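Quick one, probably user error.
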């Protein structure tokens, strides 16, 4: 999730930590994770997830701002 899209959540996070990760063109990066009691997602249906870790990106996820968060489709 993009940091700007989740600023309010950062204040409510139960816990925070950084982990290493790799992506295209970046083999040694760190990403901030925040732990939330719950997160509600709206798509074709409403889905509430309990005790969830959210990765916070300092960069835009989509080039045109169409979306600001990536979600595993298995959640729905």
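Nope, works fine. Designed sequence:
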């Amino acid at each position: 999730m993009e940091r700007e899209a989740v600023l309010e959540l950062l204040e409510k996070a139960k816990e925070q930590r950084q982990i290493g990760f790799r992506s295209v063109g970046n083999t040694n990066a760190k990403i901030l994770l925040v732990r939330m009691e719950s997160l509600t997602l709206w798509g074709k249906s409403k889905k509430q997830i309990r005790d969830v870790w959210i990765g916070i990106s300092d960069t835009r996820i989509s080039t045109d701002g169409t979306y600001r968060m990536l979600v595993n489709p298995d959640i729905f």
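DSSP finds one helix and three strands in the chain.
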